[in-house]
Amino acid sequence: MEEKFDVTGMTCAACQANVTRVVSKLDGVSHCDVSLLSNSMKVEFDQDKVNEQVICEAVKQIGYTASVHGEKGEVKKEWQNRQDLVESDQRSAKQRLILSLVLLIPLLVIAMGPMVGLPILEGMEWMMISALTQLILCLFILFIQRHFFITGFKALMKKSANMDSLVAMGSGASFVYGLVGIYQMAYYFGVQNIEMAHMAMHSLYFESAATIVTLVSVGKYLESRSKAKTSDALDKLVDLAPKNATILRNGKEVVVSSESIRIHDIVVIRPGQRIPVDGKVVSGTGYVDQSAITGESLPVEKNVGDSVISATMNENGTFQFEAEKVGQDTTLAKIIQLVDDAGNSKAPIARLADKVSGVFVPVVILIALITFVVWLISGQTIQFALSNAISVLVISCPCALGLATPVAIMVGTGKAAENGILIKSAAILEQLHSIDTIVLDKTGTITSGKPSVQGIKVYTNISENDFISMAASLESGSLHPLGQAIVEYAKDKNMNLEQPENFTNISGRGIQAKLNEHVYLAGNKRLLEEKNIRINQNVVADLDAYASLGQTPLIFVEDQNVIGLISVADTVRSTSQVALEQFKQKNMHVVMLTGDNKKTAEAIGKSLSVDEVISDVLPQDKESVIRKLQEQGKKVMMVGDGINDAPALMRADIGVAIGAGTDIALDSADVILMKSSLLDVVTAIDLSSDVIKNIKMNLFWAFFYNILGIPVAAGLLYPAFGLRLSPMIGSACMSLSSVCVVTNALRLRYFKPRIEMEEVKTFTMHIDGMSCGHCAWLVEDALKKVPNVKEVRVDYNLGKADIDYVQQVNMVALKQAVKDAGYIPVEYKEEKKMKKIVTVDGMMCMHCVAHVKDALSKVEGVSDVVVSLDEKTATLNCTENVTDQMLSDAVTNAGYTVISVK
């Protein structure tokens, strides 16, 4: 089993290494992961061999305390408890630091004032008073900073020396040497040898002992403040959870804390309120801004039966919902837990630092002893030798080594979460930038995953409408996007669908069903070949023609005879082409996987300029494609939907689930993209690269500092240049080293995606009260001032405004802008579409069909164009502002004749 423990008393990487070493040695423990940043430990162990009490006792034996992490409660409360503990520790550290500084200043003035000519306690008669005053001030400071000595010497006695041990030894040695100096002064005063007493006074090291612990505490305080900033991203996530909520109790509304909500409670949500838990709407309606969780830019209408997500904001309307997931089971809580776990996990790049940290302190102590002995043997005084040895102890910094990696990892995973990218571990974050091959599933990854009907061919005497009705009835039992496109097309034509019998899904090929006593097949060419159904040359020609246009034709068979086909195509996301170009710039080999036939796949692949297209791939074959690429020595990333592509995602070196939205518990994916943009993959790779560069910089500084600082502190440069470091300078350097590492890692907080493509979207707001062009101008001017609104087109005759926007737009702000202009906003809604049929003369082949379709599609406000060569018609949806003349002109300019527009 795996258990989480809270560990207190750790101050540096050596502490972390000591706890890891001791717990890992226990019989039955298979894995131990200790986090210095969060003061926590995760242990995987066999309950039959070891238990929680034994683990806690083992940690206690080396000078730390461990306890089983408390039962998980409501996410905001648990996080607040954590933050309160951190703030309490910081307040305590700040108080100790201020008191120490207040006492250190007079100590330094008394000890060093005479050296710079200050008339403070100078003269023979003041020597003993000066010495005793220094002793008293030093004792107060050491008492205030006593935790260094308690934890340091306790760890030393347990053979688990850490940074506190080095500080305690350095400061303690200075203090003891100062005490010896006072005794010498007293002795020489007793024998009336004033000169020797004066010399002994110069051997007092009380200011050094006090300065060492004070400067180190300065560094630790600054370090703790900096480390607190590493969780800024988590703070923002936690703040999304509302503190209170309104629920119904005995028919009355009661305000309660969010953590007290239980499953089946009825929660009341009004405009401007955040949703506290996951649930399902039971009454009312609202428009919910889900951008913080799913990345959707427009508020989503919520009606009875719709699901609502925790931490999302209701912008308009009032509704009630039944709580279904509460506490740690909510979507927000799972996201926070995932980001927290990833931030506290270890990256492989940290292994060297961990190994060095495990032996660092004992080696430093040995170097300090050697330094002391060597300088004594060389003829230097005890004071000189001791000063150098103490400098070695206090300049050494295992903290910089220990913080080099985890701080950058925590900030990196947090920044990823801010951009809608959930990275499950530090190892994945490290590996992302080294991927050289990226495999993209076409449907739903490169394309929108919402295909539409593009062309229809009928080979029998039945009418086109009857054929569409039959095809849609068959596909009504399928969940495949291509089948659903046909169903939606029929519904738009208000066709009545029948329920098929004996429905069978044939994976990767199509479907089989019975309808009105006839047996039907619907699917691709491979399905017909397997069923030994002959396809004549006319059908083959049509299949090739549609495929060459990048469309997917579905063949329909009735009682072993081909009766028609429907061509369906998906639209490429506007961000996909930009992302593919970025992959190329990063020298990545781009592979597109698709179940489409070879011609369709190659047409799409050519338009996107991908390096390799693998077509006719069945869902169960995707995993083998990944394996073959890996056998070629490639590091492969697979990007798919996380469900249908699960085996391939698990096989890949890194599996990325795109557009996962609220489904963050996907075991198959290493990275989850909340939105559906491939640009987020680019962002994840760029972030990984920046994090690894930052870690390498930190590690270089940490190693360079210690490799350079320790020899200089030992006096290596003294014989040649007369250069040596005092213990006070050494302790200052030690404090600054860890602060520098943390500060450098915090630069990652300013990471921004290299490519921020603004996808322009449009919706329509209906407005009452406009009567003239001046009214339209006032509304347009008011709406343009709302953030993220790019363009506004107002029609006062129709009483509406078409609003182009990017990213996310606030509906409340839009409605308020209209009100401030003096008009009445009506609930915004998608613009009403009209269906029109254009009869066209002059089309001779499938290329003519493509030309007419392209011409009509370019008319602003036209969508869902379907051109039939047999019927000589083009069926389309268009907005109210599209006139018949506009449609006629588009077809005429393409070289064809319009007979009628209905």
TrEMBL record:
Coiled-coil stretches: none
All copies of domain HMA, residue ranges: 1-67, 761-826, 834-899
EC number: 7.2.2.8
Membrane topology, from the record: Multi-pass membrane protein
EC top class, as a word: translocase
Keywords of the record: ATP-binding, Cell membrane, Copper, Copper transport, Ion transport, Magnesium, Membrane, Metal-binding, Nucleotide-binding, Repeat, Translocase, Transmembrane, Transmembrane helix, Transport
Catalytic activity: Cu(+)(in) + ATP + H2O = Cu(+)(out) + ADP + phosphate + H(+)
Cellular localization per UniProt: Cell membrane
BP GO terms, sorted: copper ion homeostasis
Gene3D superfamilies: 3.30.70.100, Calcium-transporting ATPase, cytoplasmic domain N, Calcium-transporting ATPase, cytoplasmic transduction domain A, HAD superfamily/HAD-like
PANTHER family: ATP7, ISOFORM B, P-TYPE CU(+) TRANSPORTER
Similarity comment: family membership: Belongs to the cation transport ATPase (P-type) (TC 3.A.3) family. Type IB subfamily.
Protein known as: Copper-exporting P-type ATPase
Organism: Holdemanella biformis
Lineage: Bacteria, Bacillati, Bacillota, Erysipelotrichia, Erysipelotrichales
